[in-house]
Amino acid sequence: MARRVTIITTGGTIEKTYDERTGDLENRQSIIRRMLRRVRLADCEIDIIELMSKDSLLMTAVDRNNILKAVEQACQSDDDGQAADGVVILHGTDTLSETGELLHASLSPSVPVVLTGAFRPFEMRLSDALQNLTESIFSVGVLKPGVYCIVHGRALRFPGVIKDRDAGTFRMQD
Questions:
Q1: pLDDT in tens, 94-128
Q2: What is the mean pLDDT of residues 26-30?
């Protein structure tokens, strides 16, 4: 039986694209389908919810509440009686911890809920985007229920996950 993973896209660096006219990197629309074409997923059914395309520094409390509602919905059974076996949220790294803390405080998930992002956009050379996405999809099949940050080969469980700007990754708060 295939594992069912819901991916919720919110934007952030992981999904930023280059605008050749202006030279800007922007969140215009989700590029998750392009990213997924680059990975091989056996026995894995992906449901995509394109929630928003925002830099996380621009997210509001309403946006975070909408992410919470989308996660709750993904964890509920659909008309066929099926729910997600795990949820992956593509999120900007600047405020990923804030959203993770909200989800941890508000949910008692029956499946793993994973937040991930990238420090370099998918479209750039040496991007960590595809690695983090692949690890996140894999991790929801092996982690216990809870809220996690999956970045750079590590699974960090909320609460207490913070962005370490100097190291260019996430870590647990001291």
A1: 999 999 999 999 999 999 999 999 998 777 788 88
A2: 76
Q: Per DSSP, which regions of 55-168 are E strands?
A: 86-90, 112-116, 146-151, 154-157, 161-164
* Tally of domains in the chain: 1
Query: Known catalytic residue: 93?
Result: no
Q: Examine residue 121 and say whether the peptide bond preceding it is cis (omega within 30 degrees of 0).
A: no
In terms of residue numbers, what domain contains 35? 3-172
Q: What is the pLDDT of residue 33?
A: 85
Q: How confident is the model at residue 158 (pLDDT cuts 50, 70, 90)?
A: very high
Q: What CATH number did the domain enclosing 78 receive?
A: 3.40.50.1170
d(CA 136, CA 131): 9
Residue 139, φ and ψ in degrees, nearest 5: -65, -30
C-alpha 166/C-alpha 35 separation (Å) is: 27
Catalytic residue of the set 6, 9, 10, 13 = 13
